[in-house]
Amino acid sequence: MCYKFCLITLSVLSCVLAVLSAAVDQSQLPSKSELVVEKQEDGQQPAVSVDVNAVPEQCHQPKETGRCFALFYRFAYNLDTQSCEEFIYGGCAGNSNNFDTKEQCEQVCQAKAAPTTSPSAAESATEQVTELTTEQ
């Protein structure tokens, strides 16, 4: 009798905890991922950089399977690789970095954070030569 009561109580408590954790406003939590940019040896900035502030906050969250045990293939944005990656979602809880398709993930997380490239020395020289030839 006590054993059945304990199992029912634990089951109800785990459901309540799952609902409560899903109700937590994820935007109020600090971001767990940080972008580290290292300078090159010659002191120049990297050729490609992404404005992390342009990436929506939901895309800063880590991949989170959730507490349930279903097997849904979903996509989440990885700030380190700057790409949308597939993961398995359990069906409940988790966070908002969870998209049905790779296209949805890219539309939300990469559209505003398009990489900006700084021109190389060769490209700059080519642009200067082009400007000189068109001015004549």
Q: How many β-strands, per DSSP?
A: 4
Rg to the nearest angstrom?
23 Å
Biggest beta-sheet profile: 2 strands, antiparallel
DSSP summary: helix tally? 3
CATH topology of the domain at 51-117: Factor Xa Inhibitor
Name the CATH superfamily classification of the domain at 51-117: Pancreatic trypsin inhibitor Kunitz domain
Q: What spatial order of strands do you see in the largest sheet?
A: 1-4
| CATH architecture term of the domain at 51-117 | Irregular
Helicity level: 25-40%
The run of helices and strands is HEEEHEH
Structural class: alpha+beta
CATH class of the domain at 51-117: Few Secondary Structures
| Residue-averaged pLDDT | 70
Strand content: 5-15%
Apparent shape: elongated
Poorly predicted tracts of residues: 5-10, 23-35, 124-134
For the termini, the CA-CA separation is: 97 Å
Q: How do the strands and helices of this protein lay out in sequence?
A:
Elements: H1 2-23, E1 48-49, E2 72-78, E3 83-89, H2 102-109, E4 116-117, H3 121-135
Antiparallel strand pairs: 1-4, 2-3
GO molecular function: serine-type endopeptidase inhibitor activity
InterPro entries: Kunitz_BPTI (IPR002223), Kunitz_BPTI_sf (IPR036880), Prtase_inh_Kunz-CS (IPR020901), TFPI/VKTCI-like (IPR050098)
Organism: Drosophila rubida
